[in-house]
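re: the backbone from monday

yeah here it is again, tokenized this time
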């Protein structure tokens, strides 16, 4: 007849969550995984019902009752915290020596693996738990790979959108971005201004010093415009030497006049390049949304700022003009 010690050694390999109890209901041995759940507990000699609370079948209150449930599914949990839920099945030992109870986590296996830091080595090689753990690991790896891919795709999308709305030479917004933001300002119904700026004598810089000098001038102009405006304003390069500034929550002409004069003064500061000084100036025209009837039209606002800009140029350049009704006719008459 096999001894309880030999039976325990065999059970350790086949069912590492077993509990071997004698006829009096005292634990003779437990499997290595079950022992891992309560590493500080001195298992041997403890009464089974002092460690486990049996919830089903409710009729079993002693080891004799428990042996009568042989083959039925047992539902139990630890009496102390954490009260991990377990499933089990009992097999009586020959000649009334007691019983072998094989335990498992059931559907709570994932929580148990997390709570007790279990690995595949803590389960029988034939246990379906192993396959479940492999599936969980594979799913986790796949989800992490998917998350990383989504992050890369999102980053690429943001970069592509940013590139689509950015002027590559100056780093400012481009015309497409300006149109988009202007439409958004109109839909919000907030007060704003549109300032159109054109560089004077820029062509002479390109013709005499080359396009590299012209690029340096444009980059300096962009820097000046960003420094002179608020973070909430939009500065866009909409043509070769044309720029538009959208200024949100502005309705006072004197504020815009001061900004335009500050920009024009900064533009007249020579830009050093290759041992030469690049000299330009700037003209600007501005219109305000409050000067227009609703519903506002983006094309009308851009046209008004453009008309005001060319009025400034015709008045001698290096100056700023506001749009006013009838300015188009005045320009035609002046020609």
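seq for it, each position gets an aa:
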């Amino acid at each position: 007849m096999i001894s309880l010690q030999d039976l325990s050694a065999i059970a350790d390999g086949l069912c590492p969550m077993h509990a071997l109890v004698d006829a009096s209901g005292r634990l003779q041995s437990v499997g290595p995984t079950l022992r891992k759940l309560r590493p500080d507990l001195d298992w041997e000699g403890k009464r089974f019902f002092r460690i486990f609370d049996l919830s089903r079948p409710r009729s079993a209150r002693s080891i004799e009752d428990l042996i009568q449930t042989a083959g039925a599914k047992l539902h139990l949990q630890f009496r102390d915290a954490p009260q991990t839920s377990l499933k089990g099945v009992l097999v009586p030992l020959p000649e009334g020596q007691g019983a072998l109870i094989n335990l498992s986590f059931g559907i709570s296996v994932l929580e148990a693996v997390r709570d007790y830091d279990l690995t595949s080595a803590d389960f029988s090689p034939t246990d379906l738990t192993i396959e479940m753990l492999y599936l969980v690991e594979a799913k986790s790896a796949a989800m992490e790979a998917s998350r990383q891919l989504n992050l890369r795709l999102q980053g690429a999308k943001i970069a592509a959108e940013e590139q689509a709305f950015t002027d590559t030479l100056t780093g400012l917004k481009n015309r497409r971005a300006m149109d988009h933001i202007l439409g958004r300002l109109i839909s919000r119904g907030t007060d704003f201004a549109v300032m159109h700026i054109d560089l004077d004598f820029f062509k002479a810089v390109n013709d005499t010093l080359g396009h590299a000098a012209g690029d340096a001038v444009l980059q300096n102009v962009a820097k000046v415009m960003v420094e002179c405006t608020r973070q909430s304003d939009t500065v866009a390069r909409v043509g070769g030497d044309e720029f538009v500034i959208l200024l949100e929550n502005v309705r006072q002409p004197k504020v815009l006049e001061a900004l335009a004069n500050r920009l024009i003064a900064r533009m007249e500061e020579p830009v050093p390049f290759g041992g030469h000084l690049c000299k330009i100036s700037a003209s600007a025209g501005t219109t305000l949304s409050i000067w227009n009837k609703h519903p506002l039209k983006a094309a009308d606002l851009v046209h008004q700022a453009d008309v005001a800009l060319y009025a400034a140029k015709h008045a001698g350049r290096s100056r700023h003009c506001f749009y006013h009704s009838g300015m188009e006719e005045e320009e035609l008459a002046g020609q």
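Residues 110 and 259 are 64 Å apart (CA to CA). Residues 4-124 form a domain with the Beta-Lactamase fold (CATH 3.30.450.260).
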